Amino acid sequence: MESGGKSSKDKVVAVVGGGLVGALNACYFARRGFQVEVFESRDDIREAKIVRGRSINLALSHRGRQALSRVGMEEKIVSKGIPMHSRMIHSLNGKQSPIPYGKKGQVTVCVMCRNAGLAERYPNAKMNFDHKLWLWSPTHVLLLWLEGRPDGSAQSLQADLIVGCDGAFSTIRKQFLRRSRFNFSQTYIPHGYLELTMPPVAGEFAMKPNYLHIWPRNTFMMIALPNLDKTFTCTLFMPFDEFEKITTGDDVMEFFQEYFPDAIPLIGVEALKTDYFRLPAQAMVSIKCSPYHINDKCVLMGDSAHAVVPFYGQGMNAGFEDCIVFDEIMDQCNEDFSAVLPEYTRVRVPDDHTIADLAMYNYVEMRAHVNSKWFLFRKKVDDI
Ligand code: FAD
């Protein structure tokens, strides 16, 4: 398509951040024929055994699957995931009670987040790992200054469009903050999270695999999602001041004995005592901003535009949906960025803000009511 005198194949789209949303976005732009350059500060995580401090398995739901399907990636990703038909509630006395998701046949798929190379099947898309953006300018010419290359040098690039997919602490968004009439808010919740691994038992999953396992304990909560290697990633959510009270291996055991006794033999005493202290608990932030664009030059998508707390399981899914919404507007506006970008802000901001609010609402609900009458009510609603 033609717009602004240049055809899409002559235009350079710089996607900053090659995480979940950046990698998918690169496919959407490459499919249209743009010259796509993805800049990712980390190594290629497909090669990494451990991704420090980040959850590597996530629940992919309907809105995320739709976005993958549009670029022919749904089957590839879903076939490497594990379907979760139900939630499995673990009571304090060890009793397990399944609660299905939604209607019969409806499933959420647990997927690994190592999709950084999705775009590489397009010859006009290039992944640049170890490239960290540290400065850019939306005025005059667009320059991306990059560091982190093996020789330590910087590099610049002139792009027709910059797509900020660089996560909750976005460097791209910093320039937005300097501009008039840019609304921004961020809220840290009192809870943090910490990840533990539940190993396989005799080569098999230690618990039933096709479930999202939940241990609701009012102000605490632990969840476990299955991985393809037959491990579970357990995530403990808890207020920071409670994390700080646990300082020794014996404290960990006492705490698990009181709240999650059935998980102790499954994770293992020694693993619990050491893994608990491997990384500090991570903070969770909810970020809202508006507008999502600067002129016809730059647009924010994914967590850089709307980081949400993870209790609704929709952060990645909403980011994937950003890609599909932007793509539809590209069709409607004939790829004219001066029309596409404001329209994208107009359409997308209210929906993303609603998802952020729902996630915050679920933060309260999941902890306090997941083991109460509310859950039975939710089950009835889901079944309708
Ligand atoms: P990110 O995944 O943060 O990726 C940003 C990328 O940009 C990173 O690779 C980073 O290295 C790179 N980057 C950053 N700065 C620069 C720079 N200056 N230059 C170059 N590159 C840079 N969502 C779900 O839908 N389902 C779930 O089940 C779910 N569970 C979650 C559980 C937890 C504990 C948490 C914390 C989040 C969860 N989420 C879930 C949310 C999901 O992880 C995020 O919404 C999603 O990762 C956002 O993707 P993104 O690509 O926008 O940002």
UniProtKB/TrEMBL annotation:
Keywords assigned by UniProt, alphabetized: FAD, Flavoprotein, Membrane, Mitochondrion, Mitochondrion outer membrane, Monooxygenase, NADP, Oxidoreductase, Pyridine nucleotide biosynthesis, Transmembrane, Transmembrane helix
Domain FAD-binding: 13-323
Record's catalysed reaction(s): L-kynurenine + NADPH + O2 + H(+) = 3-hydroxy-L-kynurenine + NADP(+) + H2O
Residue ranges crossing the lipid bilayer per the database entry: 12-31
Portion of the parent chain present: 1 to 384 of 464
Pathway: Cofactor biosynthesis; NAD(+) biosynthesis; quinolinate from L-kynurenine: step 1/3
Main location: mitochondrion
Topology class, membrane: Multi-pass membrane protein
One BP term from GO: kynurenine metabolic process
Protein name, entry field: Kynurenine 3-monooxygenase
GO cellular component: mitochondrial outer membrane
Cofactor names: FAD
Family: Belongs to the aromatic-ring hydroxylase family. KMO subfamily.
MF terms in GO: FAD binding; kynurenine 3-monooxygenase activity
Enzyme class: oxidoreductase
Enzyme Commission number(s) from the entry: 1.14.13.9
